[in-house]
Design goal:
5-stranded parallel beta sheet, Arc Repressor Mutant, subunit A, 2 domains, 8% strand, 203 residues
Length: 203
């Protein structure tokens, strides 16, 4: 289910999900809360910040995981929608392959947001209500040198292709290192990993 004030949705949405159902009337956003769907996508188009939080929070209470689409992604907006229950956040004009990647990440129990925003989101999250002496995360001593390097690169907001180029690896190897790193640090996705990296004394 896609909810958008635009009456002409992106063809990229149809490219990813040919069976999508679109609700295009802004006034009906909250009326559609109880519609059954596997995933709910909310387009931020024409929503002011307070409306976005209200609608996101209401939709996030339902069974279907909520993913927010923005035509101008920012860390502040990402923080707002993820903090009230959204499970994903991406550009409204993301290519179909990326939209499918978002669904796969959320289906696996994780969160998804553009890699470029991961580090900035982690910093924003830590600046809100952080304890004066946060615990240093455990588990990094169990990582191999390559796993540690990959984790640090994720903490800087690099995507897999950029990490592969930086470290002289294939993208497949980067994915493999990430998988074992997630397991060793007991995290489910890049956002959680970036949060841990940002808590290290030096990184």
């Amino acid at each position: 289910m896609f909810i958008s004030a635009s009456e002409i949705p992106s063809q990229r949405w149809y490219g990813a999900f040919s069976d999508l159902v679109l609700f295009s009337s802004k006034k009906d956003y909250l009326a559609q809360v109880h519609t059954r769907a596997d995933f709910c996508w909310l387009d931020t188009f024409s929503l002011d910040p307070s409306e976005l939080v209200q609608v996101t929070e209401a939709l996030a209470q339902e069974r279907a995981p909520l993913i927010v689409l923005s035509d101008n992604p920012s860390e502040s907006e990402a923080f707002r929608v993820l903090s009230v229950g959204a499970r994903g956040y991406c550009h409204s004009e993301a290519v179909p392959e990326q939209l499918i990647e978002v669904v796969q990440a959320v289906s696996a129990g994780g969160y998804w947001m553009p890699p470029a925003l991961v580090q900035r989101f982690a910093s924003a999250a830590l600046s809100v209500g952080s304890p004066q002496h946060p615990d240093v995360p455990e588990g990094f001593d169990r990582l191999t040198e390559r796993e540690y390097q990959v984790a640090m690169a994720v903490g800087k907001g690099l995507n897999n292709k950029e990490i592969a180029t930086l470290l002289g690896l294939s993208e497949r190897s980067v994915k493999a290192h990430l998988t074992t790193t997630f397991e060793k640090l007991y995290v489910r996705d890049r956002v959680q990993l970036a949060l841990l990296v940002s808590r290290l004394p030096l990184h």
